[in-house]
UniProtKB/TrEMBL annotation:
Gene3D superfamilies: Jelly Rolls. It comes from the Bacteria. It holds the Pfam family Cupin_2. It comes from Flavobacterium azizsancarii. PANTHER family: BLL4564 PROTEIN, RIBD C-TERMINAL DOMAIN CONTAINING PROTEIN. This is Cupin domain-containing protein. InterPro entries: Cupin_2, HNL-like_cupin, RmlC-like_jellyroll, RmlC_Cupin_sf. CDD domains: cupin_HNL-like (cd02233). Residues 47-103 form the Cupin type-2 domain.
Length: 138
């Protein structure tokens, strides 16, 4: 039986650079796969979160699509409950919707982030997600 990439603990894309502690709690790595393209108005990055890591609350002026490729994580829009995300899940985030995403407490979490309509801007970072907010998954 041939081993899969997950069984060998390999990933499709390199881990990338450590994300800024100004916008993330815990460690996360970002590898831009498609830097912001002014013709396609799209940027694509692979983001790896260590267990328990998450980004700050933020919005995307042009919207974003997340495609989960490994592990389990959380996604939350302001005023709504936290959603559990698992490999294969896709999240369509509408423009200007305040949200955050990151790994669950027990699992590393990887997603591809597609920023759309980037001529409107890519991301507006807001306040950190508190431990109380993060631990509110039911």
């Amino acid at each position: 039986m041939k081993a899969t990439k997950n069984q060998l603990n390999e990933t499709i894309f390199p881990k990338g650079d450590l994300a800024s502690a100004d916008y993330f709690t815990g460690k996360a790595w970002v590898k831009m796969l498609v830097p912001n393209d002014p013709v396609l108005n799209t940027a694509v990055g692979n983001v790896v979160f260590e267990a328990g890591a998450r980004n700050n609350w933020h919005t995307h002026p042009g919207g974003q699509i997340l495609i989960v490729t490994q592990g389990s994580g959380y996604y939350q829009e302001d005023g709504k409950p936290i959603q559990l995300l698992q490999e294969g899940d896709v999240v369509n985030i509408q423009p200007e919707v305040k949200h955050w995403h990151g790994a669950s407490p027990e699992s590393e979490f990887t997603h591809i982030a597609i920023s759309t309509n980037t001529e409107k801007g890519i991301v507006d970072w807001l306040e950190p997600v508190t431990d109380e907010q993060y631990n509110n998954f039911k």
